[in-house]
Amino acid sequence: MGEVWGKFRSLLRYTGIALLVVILAGCGLFKETADDGQSSWSNFSYFNHAITDSLDDDSGLEALIFPYQRHVEGIRSRVLTRSEFRIEPGKPESALGNLIADLIRSRASSETGRSIDLAVFSSDELRIYLPEGEVTLGMIHDLIPSDEKLNLQKHTGKQIRKMADEIAARGGDPISGLRMQISDDSATGVVIGSDQIEPNQTYWLVTYGRLADRESSLINALNAPIKSKKLDVTVREAVIDYLRARESIAPEKDHRIRLVR
Question: Which of 76, 108, 137 is the last residue of a domain?
């Protein structure tokens, strides 16, 4: 921690120097005026400084940042719940992915007062695990660093079926309400709840803003939704509220996605 903090101090120091140079340049202090009255850059040079541990400690900067550092660390250390074991991401399904997909589907249902048929999340977003024992607020901010809001969409069964094939081609993604098998990179045995997908029936799906808005193969498989609405709650808020309301968590894999050889 001391090494990281030292590098951070050095970064702030050189960031401040760079900002000062930009301000002075903007004020014209690094320009000269030619005989024709035109200003031009002259004799201006810069240097690259490596951020290393060789710089001396800056007690003034430490005193300035310490109160904020202590405040942030105090917030991040707040315990939300306890995990009964280490909860990891993975494919084709994972305990962590199941937890996230299930809770955003549940939250979307409570926010809208309607039954939400399924949820989909991207496995690319889940890069760290939750450890056994205390789960803190800081861990959730590290797990879900962005402020993406839940996005509710209405799709036909035909669109959902194409999305299932894309999930299969990706090797699996966190889903809730949907069960499927992966065979030769294609989805088979796809059901919502316990029912076969009807191509012309409509279904409500919840995901999150960035996945819904960006050019992603997963969402492109759905084409244009019949309806779309952003909910006024972020994925991180949904996760924090869910965990805070529980003394402990123990999500499991339940074979909602199975590999068939």
Answer: 76
